[in-house]
Amino acid sequence: MAEKKSNTAKASKKVKPLTKKNTPKKATAERLELLVTIVNRNKAEYYTDLIQSFDVNLQATVLSHGTADAKMLVFLGLSETEKTVIFSIIQEKKVNDAVAVLEEKFNTIKDGKGIAFTVPLTSVIGTLIYRFLSNNRTPVKEEK
Fold first, then answer.
1. Is residue 98 classed exposed, middle or buried when 0-12, 13-18 and 19+ CB atoms within 10 A define those classes?
2. What is the pTM of this model?
């Protein structure tokens, strides 16, 4: 009786340990953040244009209504309860400048008070979507 040879020896391959030469290349890219800005409805267009000057390629505005009662409005020095929430995707490196300009405008513009904060985005699906959101028209470079 002839003995059958096993194909397992052929199928198994040696796994090379990861070194600098054979590690997968990672794409380097700037991180993105979601900038949320809440302002009076009559100043929404002004702040949308201001934020767009920081290479923001995608913004969404949502009409909203504040929930503070009249006593709280007087205490906080606010006059209107009709608000607009502006959602903007911004590059992480431009967040500090954008927030500083927003803070200055909140303090100097008449009836221009507002709130701004950011939430980091941990991932984006697809390089084309990333390039659109980051306002980056050049391909993402890979590390060598």
1. buried
2. 0.68
